[in-house]
Amino acid sequence: MSTHDIDWFCCINHVYVHVASAGCKLPEIYRTMNYQILKSFLNRALSLPIISDYVLNENYINQYLINNGEEDFEHEFYDDSEDDIFLHDEPKIMRLYSRSFVEMARRGFYSFDKSEGENDNYHLVAKPTIALQESQMQLVFSKHLLTVACDSLSFDSIDQLTGVKLVDIIDNNTNRDL
Asked: How many domains does the chain have?
């Protein structure tokens, strides 16, 4: 399943997290799960109402776009500027990259993308200004949400949420089976 760009979800330290895998390694518990079930998690998350504004990790996004060449990058994403009314103040290239992450942040998730390179690091792209509450998540995921506690990860500073080994955190700290 590593060839699919799977969106997966978890709860770390009572913070609800959305992760775009970019075709890379998934947490162990998700690796054996049927692709359609994993896809249904995304559909359920997208069914949540928009509850929040968002904050972009602009420092990381700008560095990411510089490293990847903005001209080449623009061709990778479908551009429908009318869909981006919530991203109207950001430059076009930033809108193109961050659109799906902002969509999750507006639903209350901290939204991560796979970092560049041959590693298992992730970086925060967008975070909500109002986080999801547990009661809202129970309606969407029931018992099917990985929940972990991790003392080494703090969501207090957006700049600290780059180079995060999310899969390792999940695999080494999982306390709820699916």
From this structure: 1
